Fold each of these.
Amino acid sequence: MIPDQKPIWDRKHVLGEHENIRHSPSHFAPIARKYFPKGATIVELGCGVGRESEYFAKHGFHVLASDISSKAIELDKRHFAGLNIKFSVLDMREPLPFVDSKLDVVYCNLSLHYFDDKTTERIFGEIWRALKPGGILAFACKSIHDFHYGNGREVEKNVFVSKSGHARHLFSLD
């Protein structure tokens, strides 16, 4: 069983564990951006410290950024006030609060690998439901070739929980 990840991420954000990357987008963001329609609305699931949200907003996109951590969202609202970003707390384990077939882009950088297979499949189904025809899902997740593979207790095939309770679902191409 995977423990609730919200308290873990609230603690990480309160302690500032990811502050050093707040204004540095990942390598994935500029790669993904090339595929997004000009001026599109991007829904980011799992925005963390808001680094990708800031990057996309500064490149002319409308951003709806969400995270399970209310602490992250509080900090993001302060850091990125004035940018074209709307922040909200959202638990991907619940149905996504978006109308069917309306979203231009859903972006998830390292936020879809905290769940068991059944939950992950449900989340992808919700994303598919909410994307408009021709909409774009851009996501990156951890691989079975990641150095974290095998770290912790395996609770399901390729799903590991560390001693601190941090879950990682590592994926193969299959």
Note: The two ends are 23 Å apart (CA to CA).
Amino acid sequence: AATPVGLLEIRHSLGVIPTSTGPAWHQPNVWLLQGIPFLLWAWLRWIRLRAEFFEKNPRVRRQKETATLVAQCMSRLPELAKSNNGAEFFQTLTKALRAQIGERLDMPDSGITEDIIHTKLRPAGLPQADITTLGELFDQANQFSFASQLPSGGLTPLVSKVQSVIEALQKLPPPK
């Protein structure tokens, strides 16, 4: 016997009905979900304001870029000194020194020569001992580039000299 197709019987019991725990805004998850768009907007706004700040302040941008470049170069120097890789060592050394001097004197890195050390850094307030050390570092870099001769004491002692000169240069007042 086949069951007739048509209207089905109306249910008299609806089963278990979940009880309401109150309005949705009383649920902590709702507030967390509502906060996500605001936090995303605030983060993106901060990024945009920071970018605008650096666009409007090229000296601050250059100081930040120079600090990053010098830190990268200074982290590489000890390993290059240990491996006695003179070519990369002196290239990294001069790159860091020229970047730091150029930033402090508000000059392009390519315009930094040994003459600038004496004519601009002494009046800027760099101590004579650091000027002498800086001249020696540039002399050794030039000597290596022309004669491919490493210093007699090796490259490792030069790392501390570079670090002290960089620190002295960073203490100079920034350009106005």
Note: The mean pLDDT is 88.
Amino acid sequence: MNYQGFDSAAVPIHVENTRLGLFTRNSAGSGPAIVQNGSAGYALNGHTAAVHPGEVAVLWGTGLGPVTGNEAAGPLPGDLGGAVDVLVGNQPARVLYRGRSGCCAGVDQINFEVPPGIQGCFVPLAVRAGGVLSNFTTISIASNGRICSGPHGFSTADLQTLSQGSDLRVGSVELFRGVINLRMPNSTQVQVATGDAGAAGFYRFQPVAAEAAQGFVGVELRGFSGLAPFGSCNVFPFLSSDPTNPDGLDAGPAVNVTGPHGTKQLTNGPGAYSGDLGGNDPLGLLGIQNLGPPFLDPGTYTFDNGAGGPNVGGFRATLNVPATVTWTNADQVGTVDRTKSLTVNWTGADPAKEFIVIAGFSTDTRGAQAFGAYVCTERANAGTFTIPSFIFSTLPASPGPNGYNGVVWVGNVSLPTRFTASGLAVGFLVYELFQYEAVNYK
């Protein structure tokens, strides 16, 4: 580099032939991808403009590979060929075109056919090009109509208001139990920590006026859950702040939680309310205080916010919480080989009321401090789920031979129970009961 007549010192750089990055709605490389629905006037894909199985979609990104010629004079469209795998819901799709776009120099497009049997608002979407996975994004798919829905999030009716350019006011109250097992090396000893917590959120998601017709809304980027459809996994390669910035709603000074062990409160609104409910964490594994006996045992829990607040009226609702499912092969996890798939098994889930989440993360605290996480879902009565090896390939490896650099967790999560309150379009009650295993990702 030359600046004001002076050359800088030479610095080596690494150039790869193919390193595809997919464009996303939040401009951060995560969440809903920039996808056009080819069979619907090339509308921008979204919750209220979903694509159908069997239709053609156009995915946008950059880094698919070099072209022959100089793009400084303008784009050089053409199919680049080569091995390009589009993974929709972690399943392969038929690729129709992969190469430069005719619109812009250096911009790639991939035309593909959406596979059958997949639907949801946050269907995982990634591309393997040159043997390397792109960033993981999502796409909205509906079996009919143009509004997506999912069993663990918003319904078509909930999102109908967004297609009309109206805002959506949402409330949720969640109960959480985490039990983490730390199995000591070369020993049968297991250190256990238990933490119970609660959280409530009341928000208004607004359409962006210029793009309301295409459903570009805050809930599009985050939504109630953001979970993948059953039988698939989403990957989150970094920690980032929420780009949606919804408006917090005042539901009063506190949300009361009453169960078999008494009453506790979720506080610090408006918008977000939270509270530690109980648990024992002698080793600091969960980062909580030792709060005495656990609170979230099986039983019936009642929620209320008294007289309510200026934005959300008073409500009273109940949720039945069961025991945590049994993760039957938890003691066999220990070390996760990132080149192999991992199968987890469970028993005790109720298919009529809940589903299973299988998730984990890995960290490398050296240098750039890499982080990667994945979240998979499966039906409760499946009893087993295999995490594909390509999911693990996105995670950083263990930084050394000693200690743990990540976790795997399995648990039962309730299908949302709904409640009503003035000022809200929809309210959800949810429990999440997880068992964690400290592991090494190799």
Note: Helices lie at 156-163, 218-221, 389-392.
